[in-house]
Design the sequence.
């Protein structure tokens, strides 16, 4: 409400001869900002009630004991950090997120370049085909991966045998399973990178390449000195955003391995689900999730900085 | 400046254009070849999904011949699912949950975006930044405290919990898209309407919504994707079969049977994947444009 006065200063500073007009303007401005707040109210209620409040509630929950009666301070966090199985979760989450994002970004970059070479109507069809993995609900497509990896019916193994190779237990050993979840995540996420990079590629002015061609630049030089610098921002923000989403990933690991074999593929989210929902230890589950918080907050800080800078540039 | 480049270009143009064209043609062929390989690799799981859905349980268990091809294709799995009451319930639950989530999310997002992009009040910048920030808070960070919240509301194992929670996943991004589209509408347009005596609801309905329709389509598709495909919340809060939605229903209930039900499971996946694929086929351009709106600027 207080803002209505500042707005009126702007509107009425022309020294309107009739003070009556200033009064009605003030009323108008006040009504305007009340309406504005009212229109935002559902959004604010939703965000505060079901996003901000649960975040703080999680911090409170994580400091309780299993029965949620006694306050135990940071005991849950200390306990988790000392457990080898949780140390594995930290390792696996970092390995999963970093490897998958690097692979998605690289693959997306290559795909975007190939796609960029194809112009016109054809591009739409190819792009549509490559977007299919990203369009199917992840939990359903992960099921089909699981069926492809199935120990006794695996179609991959049938193909390997047909070429004369040994069968591979795709989800049976630690490293195979780790690679498998990364592959599925890459398969799902690479198309997103592709469309982001494709849009960025399209926005690079063609004259730059023409000028470089006249100067005798090779394809490699064009990539290093034109494409990459022009796409720097979008690469950065997509990678940061994807790191957040991949760190917090749940569906793939839950369906494909459910953390196995021997808890070696658990991510923060799936481990929190096992501890918090399935074993019923809500406080400890909350503390598992909260381990993601500092990582995500750091990444979010950089994303936000970039987005704000960008929106300022656009608005001016 | 134009005259200088024109004269400089004039002499060697012919030879250069020829070689560039040849170069381009080869680049095009190479791109097509490489893309074909990638498309084949990327489409293996959906292809196998469809193939398995066309196999009978007997064919799957017999393990004769190539698993990549359905030797005696049959639609029995689909016929079974269409008449299966449990599957019907999952599907219907998914449909009404998604419809409500889209409606609710879009209403909240459009109203808020209109207010934030046009009626600027003190703190509106803080709110828009905050909205974007909450978009970066993933559901896997919140599902345990929300379990308590949902429990205290008495909504555990009630499909309505999704109508309450899915908008939290959809609204921040939808609002963000809509703010972008609304901000790109020239201020003169609504100022003119205001002078002509239009009210804010009229401006929103008669100017903003029609002009920003591509953005609305993009945001709607996003909300639909969330409502149709999200997995964690329904898995955590809905445990009985009659309350489940498609994603959880297929993963949890159908797999309980013996291993040879895979034909049915994959048929269920095909049916679950069909609505998004159909929608994307027609509206993908809008969605991609909405997603990449930021990428093409700056």
Sequence:
């Amino acid at each position: 409400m207080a803002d209505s006065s500042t707005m009126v200063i702007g509107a009425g500073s022309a020294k309107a001869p009739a003070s009556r007009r200033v009064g009605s303007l003030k009323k108008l401005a006040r009504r305007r900002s009340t309406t504005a707040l009212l229109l935002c109210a559902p959004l604010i209620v939703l965000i505060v009630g079901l996003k901000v409040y649960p975040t703080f509630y999680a911090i409170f929950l994580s400091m309780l004991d299993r029965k949620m009666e006694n306050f135990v301070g940071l005991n849950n966090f200390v306990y988790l950090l000392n457990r080898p199985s949780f140390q594995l979760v930290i390792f696996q989450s970092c390995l999963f997120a970093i490897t998958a994002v690097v692979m998605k970004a690289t693959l997306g970059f290559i795909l975007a370049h190939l796609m960029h070479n194809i112009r016109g109507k054809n591009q739409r069809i190819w792009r549509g085909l490559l977007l299919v993995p990203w369009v199917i609900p992840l939990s359903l497509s992960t099921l089909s991966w699981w069926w492809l990896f199935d120990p006794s019916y695996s179609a991959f193994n049938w193909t390997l045998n047909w070429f004369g190779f040994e069968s591979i237990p795709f989800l049976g050993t630690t490293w195979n399973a780790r690679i498998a979840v990364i592959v599925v995540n890459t398969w799902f996420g690479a198309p997103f990178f592709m469309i982001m990079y494709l849009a960025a590629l399209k926005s690079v002015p063609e004259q730059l390449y023409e000028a470089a061609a006249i100067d005798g630049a090779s394809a490699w030089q064009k990539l290093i000195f034109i494409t990459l610098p022009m796409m720097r921002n979008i690469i950065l923000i997509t990678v940061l955003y994807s790191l957040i989403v991949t760190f917090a990933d749940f569906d793939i690991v839950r369906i494909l391995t459910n953390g196995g074999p021997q808890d070696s593929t658990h991510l923060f989210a799936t481990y929190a689900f096992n501890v918090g929902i399935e074993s019923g230890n809500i406080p400890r589950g909350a503390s598992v999730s909260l381990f993601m918080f500092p990582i995500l907050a750091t990444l979010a800080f950089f994303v936000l900085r970039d987005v704000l800078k960008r929106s300022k540039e656009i608005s001016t | 400046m134009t005259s200088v480049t024109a004269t400089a270009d004039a002499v060697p143009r012919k030879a250069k254009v020829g070689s560039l064209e040849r170069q381009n043609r080869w680049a095009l062929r190479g791109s097509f070849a490489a893309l074909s390989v990638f498309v084949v690799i990327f489409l293996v799981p959906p292809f196998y999904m469809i193939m398995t859905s066309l196999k009978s349980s007997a064919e799957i268990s017999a393990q004769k011949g190539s698993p990549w091809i359905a030797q005696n294709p049959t639609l029995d799995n689909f016929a079974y699912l269409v008449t299966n009451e449990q599957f019907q319930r999952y599907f219907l639950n998914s449909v009404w949950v998604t419809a409500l989530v889209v409606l609710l999310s879009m209403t909240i997002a459009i109203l808020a975006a209109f207010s934030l992009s046009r009626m600027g009040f003190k703190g509106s910048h803080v709110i828009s930044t905050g909205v974007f920030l909450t978009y970066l808070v993933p559901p896997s960070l919140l599902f345990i405290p929300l379990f308590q919240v949902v429990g205290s509301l008495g909504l555990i194992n009630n499909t309505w919990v999704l109508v309450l929670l899915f908008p939290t996943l959809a609204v921040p991004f939808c609002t963000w898209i809509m703010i972008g589209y609304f901000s790109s509408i020239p201020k003169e347009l609504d100022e003119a309407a205001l002078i002509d005596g239009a009210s804010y609801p009229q401006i929103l309905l008669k100017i903003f919504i029609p002009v920003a329709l591509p953005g609305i389509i993009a945001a709607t598709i996003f909300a639909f994707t969330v409502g149709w495909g999200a997995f964690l919340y329904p898995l955590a809060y809905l445990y009985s079969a009659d309350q489940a939605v498609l994603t959880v229903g297929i993963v949890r209930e159908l797999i309980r049977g013996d291993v040879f039900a895979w034909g049915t499971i994959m048929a269920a996946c095909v049916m679950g994947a069909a609505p998004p694929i159909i929608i994307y086929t027609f509206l993908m351009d809008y969605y991609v444009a909405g997603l990449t709106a930021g990428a093409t600027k700056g």
About this structure: Residues 82 and 88 of chain B are 7 Å apart (CA to CA). The first helix of chain B runs from residue 2 to 10. Chain B is about 75% helix and 0% strand. Chain B touches chain A through 99 residues (CB under 8 Å).
